[in-house]
Fold this protein.
Amino acid sequence: MEIFELSKNFPKDEKYALTDQIRRSSRSVCSNLAEAWRKRRYEAAFIAKLSDSEGEAAETQVWLQFAVECQHLNRDLAAKLYKTYDEIIATLVGMINHPETWIITKR
């Protein structure tokens, strides 16, 4: 939500480029994680959706870098958000590497 709010201040000519892309990728992290959670009965599907979420988080980091380079976002604030996404990615990688902790097994 912080990225959404910050992106409201991006220039209008970025509406269909940077603004749209960073909003989509940041939202997709959450939606893919939610989908992974509902698919945790099936290890391969669970891992695939977590992997999608990881990719979207990395994409969001790229858009944050573009926002700074285009001078639409303060470097310090972007660095804070980038670090948050590093932490999200680390958590997702941990889940991907140890799905047995999360998946539902038949008893």
